[in-house]
Amino acid sequence: MPSAVRTIGILGAGRVGTALARQALKAGYEVLIASTRPQAESALIVELLAPGARQVGTEAAARDSDIVVLALPLGKYRSLRPETLAGKIVIDAMNYWPPIDGILPEFDRGSSSSEVVRRFLPQARLVRTLNHIGYHELEEQGRPPGHPERQALALAGDDADARQAVAGFIDRLGYDPVDAGELAAGQKFNAGTPIFGAQLRHDEMVSLLQRDSLQAKAAE
Question: What is d(CA 71, CA 43) in angstroms, rounded to the nearest whole number?
Fold first, then answer.
C-alpha cells in the first residue's frame, strides 16, 4: 500500500538522482543513494547535494528501500544485478539519449525503453515514470494537492499494486499521478512525444494519453 512506503532508494547520484533525493527528503521520506563512483567521491556528493540522504551500496539501497529509483544513464542498466532487484518496486526514470549513451540497438525498435529494462530485470516490479520531467522542474514545480497549478506525471507498469504505490509517492512529491496502464504505455511519454518535457495539468495529461490510444487503435 502507498502508506507503507517510507524509504526511497536511488541508484545514481547525478543531477536527476540528487534532485529527486532532495524532493523526496522534503516529502518526508528516508532516502538512500547508491552510486558507481568511488565511495569517498559519492559520499561527498551526497553530503553536498542531498544533505539528509544516506550514501550506501547498491545492494543495501535495494534491500532496505520500499521503492527503488533507477536514475542512472541508460547505457549502464546492464551493470545492475537482476537478483538484487527481484520482487522490488522499481521506478525506471531513465531515457535513451544516443548522443550520451551511444547507439544501443535494443532501444531503437519503437517500444518503451522500460520494456527493454524489464526484460533484463524480469522479477522487478517495474514502473516507468519521472522520466518526462526535468530535474530542475521536479524540485521547482511541486505543489500541494488541489493547487490550481499542480502538474501531472504519468506512470505505466504491469503490476497494479506497484503502480498504486508509485502513485502515492508521486503525490507526496507534489504532483498528480496519472495511471497510463501497462508498461508498454510508457512509450506515450518517451522523449520526442508531446508529453515529454511538457507542463501539463491532470486533465491535459489524461487527454493526451487518451488521444494517443485512439490514434494507435485507428492505425491498427
Answer: 17
Bin 159: left if φ > 0, else alpha if -120 < ψ < 50, else beta.
beta
Are the CB atoms for 126 and 117 separated by under 8 Å?
yes
Predicted structure pTM score: 0.92
Backbone angles phi, psi at 53, to 5 degrees: -80, 160
3-state secondary structure (DSSP) of residue 132: coil
Question: What is the H or E stretch that residue 114 is in?
Answer: helix 113-120
CATH 1.10.1060.10 fits 2-219, yes or no: no
Q: Return the exposure string of 4-17: e unless at least 16 CB atoms fall within 10 Å of the residue's CB, then b.
A: ebebbbbbbbbebb
Query: pLDDT truncated to tens, each residue of the chain (220 aa)?
Result: 445 899 999 999 999 999 999 999 999 999 999 998 888 888 899 999 999 999 999 999 999 999 999 999 888 899 999 999 999 999 999 998 776 767 777 777 666 789 999 999 999 999 999 999 999 999 999 999 999 999 999 999 999 999 999 999 999 999 999 999 999 999 999 988 999 999 999 999 999 999 876 565 545 5
C-alpha–C-alpha distance, residues 49 and 14, integer Å: 10
Q: Any idea where the domains of the chain sit in the sequence?
A: 2-219
3-state helix, strand, coil in the chain (%, to 5): 45, 15, 35
